[in-house]
Amino acid sequence: xxxxxxxxxxxxxxxPIFANSEDGWVKVKEKDGVVVYEKEIGDRTAFRGVxxxxxxxxxxxxxxxxxxxxxxxxxxLDEGRELERISPFHAVYYQAIDTLFPASNRDLVFESVIxxxxxxxxxxxxxxxxxxxxxxxxxxxxxxxxTSYKIEPLPENRMKVVFENLSDPGGRLPxxxxxxxxxxxxxxxxxxxxKEMMESAQKKASLPE
Length: 209
Known about the structure:
By secondary structure, the protein is an alpha+beta fold. It has one domain (3-12, 25-197): Alpha-D-Glucose-1,6-Bisphosphate, Chain A, domain 4 (2-Layer Sandwich), CATH 3.30.530. The protein is built from 4 helices and 10 strands. A hairpin with a 2-residue loop joins strand 1 (26-31) and strand 2 (34-41).
């Protein structure tokens, strides 16, 4: 979601490939409390960001799904809206992003599903889908192959957040841009979320029992 960063964002669940395994993840960067890892999945690179944030899972989930404030933390967002609310914990969204010249603008249509795990953590899973209310693409329709946020509550109003992404930007992008984004995006994303945690305009979301 995001100039070069959405450029990394893509149509099938692949959780068994890497979501439940620590094998193959390589630490590539650490900055401002965010640790970034990479993992090769076929001919693509998945990335992960891990950090401890202040605040509650309810507010973080609210931030992730509050389309009215996406523009405050998603870089170069041209448009973002909810296409369909399927249930309290399942919705479909659209985002359009202004990307760097000479790359074409990107957009994506994706669903987000919120569940509570056996260990009481909250898991948000996102993937690209087709939807009848989706507009025509603004340039290239990128796709989320897999995005997840695992949110583990900690004492003293803190939480551990693990963000993972594997994507196909569509079209061609220089390798150095993709490499830069994969290492920098988890940091800028988590920093943006932490900033939004301080905003009174952001409301708490209901969570699954």
